[in-house]
Amino acid sequence: MKIYPKIGVDTIKFGMSQKQVQAELGAPIGKETTAEEDIWEYANGVELAFEDDRLSSITLSDEQQLLNAKPIVGISEHVLQEQFPAFSLDEDYGSDGKSYYDEQLEIMAWVFDGKVFNVVVFPTYEQDE
User: Which pLDDT score, from 0 to 100, does residue 1 have?
Assistant: First the structure.
C-alpha cells in the first residue's frame, strides 16, 4: 500500500465515513469501540480509527507499506534514521520501544527491538487561532 502523508493510504482517505471505507475495503475482521473512537482491523495489517464516523488515523503494520516509494515497516531503526531523516525521536519507552515522529508528514513510526513494527498516519490538524 502506498502512504499519502496527511491524505490517507491507497484509495482510503481521511474524512471518509465508515460506510465509504467498507465499500472500498469490505467488512473489517475486528472492531473495537472506545469512548473516543471506533477502531477497525483488517487482515492486511491495516487498522483504521474513526471519530464521529469519520476516518481519523491509519495504523499500518504490514511490511508492504511504502512511503516515498520506500518500505518503512520492518526496516531497522538505523535505516529509518538514514532513509527518513525528518523522523525525530519522540519518546523512548525503554524495553517497550520508541516512537519517532515526522511533524511535516504527520506520521509516527513505532520501533520495537530495533525495528519499525508499525506506522501511524494522521491527517493535517487545524491550528486553533
Answer: 85
| Type of residue numbered 40 | W
* Residues 54 and 71 both lie in one domain: no
Give mean pLDDT in consecutive 10-residue pieces for the chain, a chain of 129 residues.
95 98 97 96 96 97 94 97 97 96 97 97 74
What per-residue confidence (pLDDT) applies to 125? Answer: 73
Of 60, 85, 102, which residue is a domain's last?
60
Please state the separation of Cα 8 from the chain's center in Å. 9
CA distance 43 to 54: 21
Pairing of strands 66-67, 54-60: unpaired
- The C-alpha atoms of residue 49 and residue 74 are separated, in whole angstroms, by 22
5 DSSP 8-state letter: T
